[in-house]
Queue: 2 jobs
Job 1
Amino acid sequence: MDRHDGAWTILPLMPDFSASYGRNSSWIFFCEEDTRIQIVKLLETLRRFDKSKEWFLGKALYDEESTIIHHYAFAENPSVFKFPDFAAGWALSIPLVNKLANKLKSEPLKSDFTIDLKHEIALYIWQKGNGPHLTPVPEFCTDDLNSHCATTFNNFLPVCGDPVKKEDIFVAIKTCQKFHRDRIPIVKQTWESEAALVEYYSDYAETSIPTIDLGVPNTERGHCGKTFAILERFLNSNASKTPWLVIVDDDTLISVYRLRKLLSCYDPNEPVFLGERYGYGLGTGGYSYITGGGGMVFSREAIQKLLASKCQCYSNDAPDDMVLGMCFSGLGIPITHSPLFHQARPMDYPKGYLAHQIPISFHKHWNIDPVKVYFTWLAPKMEDSFTEKKQRHIREDL
């Protein structure tokens, strides 16, 4: 199945699932790497459903208000449409798998963008009312508060050793003159102090901030020229050879403190490109990319390989995140996804989804108090260190 570049979008694999398991299995069950499963309870739960019928089972999420990440679907009543929380696991009966496989053979996937996979899969299965809706299953859980749960989910931040040093992360903030007065003060009031190495890159040099003019004109969208200039500067003028670079927007809210913990799980001597993964044209030979608003994390090795390849922007206002995805795809360097980075605001995600996360970033100041969002969701707290100690004990016990 690794021949599918878009295997993570799951739907392209339905023909393989049907061919391999369509005759001898009853269910396909999907879960995350940190989902814990009690097999006996899971089997008992699935036996309640007639395996000869089409079933789409999961823990239901829904939007409380229409959101950009779901293209404002069901705007009049967004809570009416349910989609699965992947962390709790979800299941398709084999008759439904076979139906989806046959449909995909006759009608290839048409969607250009993959943004929120769990919502898009539910939409595809629902088929505007012609297919099954999600059936909520109370035994599919994301906490372990109930003894009836067949699945639970570990909601701690991945930590694989000591957090990387503050001095090992260089933070590049993309801005422009028109946002110097409203956005940059928010950064300075919230997360700037978490980072040891920070530079603001703008179209105008202002010493009071200070900002650095890279000589690239500001563009209304895309910012590819600016991003590649940042990559060049990091590689060629950073004498300390800092192993990690993070590029964020001036309206990104990020926890560098938590990012340092997450990066303990990655080797900067390997080409690493990390963040929230989106997809473009994956059904027709496209590529995955890290969406820029939530923050893009690069190892120095990844940047070296990228710039040595001569892959570059086709224009200054090309979408930088998509061009980077295309370049890394061509180099055979995989995109590393973390759901803890977020392209949108907390209010754009279901409460049940965020309830089992320790988020690293959010994006956009629109219609929110960004300072309040930072201190509510991202600021270092006492429980962060407690959770880390608890997690280490759990891993040692395992």
Job 2
Amino acid sequence: MWSTQKNLSNLINGVVVGKKYDLFATLQEELNKNFLNFLDILKDPPCDSVERTKVKKSNEEAIQINYLNCEKKLQPSVIEEAIALSDLFSLSELKSVELLIEAEEQMQYFHGFNRGLTAVLLYYDSKKIQVNNLKTLMLVRSGRLWILDENIPAEIISFIDLYIQRLVKNGLIEKVLARIGIHEWSKAEENLVRVNGLGNLKHRKQVKNLFEEVKVLLGECIFACACQAPLEQTNTILLINFLKNNSQMVQNNQLDSQINLDTSHFFVLMALLYCFDTLYLDIKEHGKLT
């Protein structure tokens, strides 16, 4: 789960930043495989009763671990933690097992945290990497404000342009706005505390930082998308309604310090401003365009 996002990030950056253009065919294949994952950003494969039964019996009957590309029996402690992670994140039981295996491999880089706490960090880090991957693609596309790198071959830019267009056409903006709207730390923290998913102050801070960075990155994706090409009317109205609804929340909860417009909302606001056509104002001020 975490490794999948990390590998995709390495591939995207390898091609567009590292200039490994010979990997373009691989990038095309991986992006096409991950189209729905980008479209339903941050959505996890759900819990599954069949998977849960297999995992619960996996101390006696080996189960297929795709991450390891082999079948393996699990220790009772791993089974217990996998079910807990599955319940916590409403995550597929087999993905929860993979997350724990990845956490066990990465524990050496998270000194002082056990396997479960490391798995929580990797879960939120995987989300950050996923949204950052989308942001990178948004920055690579051609448009009116910037060119990321003039040396990137035209066929790569063309493919990414069409890829982003497909995402936007299929409702990406609405889905990202919805994620921003429900991405609240207080709710996540309550669930984590309930299952002892937060460790010491250092662990809590790292988890919270990752969680909040995800929300900011979602806003940056909207901003980068609108900067390079104005959103069509339907999506522009979605931005207006999103900001309107959040402004009303602030006005209705003036005494609640936890309700406030945050950084992600300001990125949405700036995205909205880039959607407005100011040509009429130029014409009105100067009489005509030269």
